[in-house]
Design brief:
With 505 residues, the chain is an alpha/beta fold. It folds into 2 domains: 3-12 and 386-504, Immunoglobulin-like (Sandwich); 18-383, TIM Barrel. The chain contains 11 helices and 24 strands. The longest helix has 21 residues, at 259-279.
Amino acid sequence: MSKTRIIVDGEFRGGEISPALFGSFVEHMGRVVYSGIYEPEHPLADQDGFRTDVLKKVNEMGVSAIRYPGGNFVSNYNWLDGVGPRDQRPRKREVAWKSIETNQFGTDEFMHWISHTGAEPIFAVNLGTKGVENALSLLEYMNLPTGTFYSDLRAKNGHPKPYGVRKWCLGNEMDGIWQIGHKTAEEYGRLAAQTAHAMKALDDSIELIACGSSSTSMHTYTDWERIVLEDTYEFVDYVALHQYYGNQEYGSADFLAQSLDMDNYIETVAGICRTVKSKKRGRKDIKISIDEWGVWEIPGDDVAQSVSSRDWQVAPAFSEQIYTMEDALLFSSMLMSMMRHTDVVKIACQSLLTNISAAIMTERGGTSWVQPIFYPFLYMSRYGRGRILEQRVYGDCYESRFGQASVIDAVLIVNEEAGECISFLVNRTDQMQNVEISCQQLPLCRVLEHIQLSHPNLKQTNQIDHRAVKPVNAGKFTLSGNIIKGTVEPFSWNMVRVAVDKRGE
């Protein structure tokens, strides 16, 4: 059994973890909305048609922010179609996902639904088929006091008080040829700058997110970020990154090492942000919003074929991925990568919330259940608060497609308010590992708990037995002075919480 030694010093702390790092994403795609979060005919639906069983799981999961309404959907969406009396809303053909959009769930319904979760809303505006005027009208509807047309329309629709949405995405994946109204970097940068300028003139309290490249595999990657930020630097606050990883066929070692690519992605874009700041002689730092991320099991070509080959339907079921224990490990490492880079990554939205690449699955008229990825997110959102501890990791590594990968992936946090030191650990190998964490300048008291997620079958899912993959209180870590020692199971995710004496700091 090999050993990994991790050294941290309480005096050397990185960025503070943003609460918005534990966000998710609701898009009008497949069954995410209809029969996902909204199903009036369901026996557990409330008076507004919201599935209470799903709401309970969303709150348990600890989602802090939710992006809406797209995604690819937003680039051909007129938000006015989804407000006002339901019997007067138009049924339309939604071309991004080849479906019939009934518009029975729209802006006001989303804001009412999210009020039950405590999460912060993040709205996207249509810069595919719409532009400045449409973005301004939506912003007025959402954020401005009554007295003008669109704010009065909100009041007429039963919502006299402004919603006060603070975070706004300027379009979605605008470099993608699949995007309705996709653009070159120059075209998008100009439109985004115009829209951002106008939106901040209307409401200077908002924060704006410009589209970056749709993934690291895009031919536009890096040039797109530079060109767009040079146009929008004065007006935007974040640049958006999207990243999904599949490639399960690589084998477990290479599959789990893909979080190294995530590290590189963040660091590369952060460098571009600094370069543009320097070129502009700017004073503000552009932060990163990873407002779509997750594990993607189904090949993109298969998804496209599934969409194009079916008839036009209301909320068709497609791309409903069933996650394994293995997928949960990469999912965890991706979130840990964002936490390690919390000095620049301030927003992240796991994609999606229900049914498509989702933590929560539902059956029409039936039960709901959670996938293995649900549990690491729950514990990391609940306990992953405070400041990152700078770490040195000494232990075995292996060569992967993405470079040298450490056997143990780790991130450590100190939460002064709670009086805790929290370690998140992923064992990327099929061997049990010893872990020793030396915490200097931290007055550790006692181990509070060791939570572990693992399964003998790396391909195990929760599809049939909804509790097949679930966390346990493993209790395999002890404290000796300032050293935390323990073992982690093969192919496992772990959380170790240790009390810190506040009086000793």
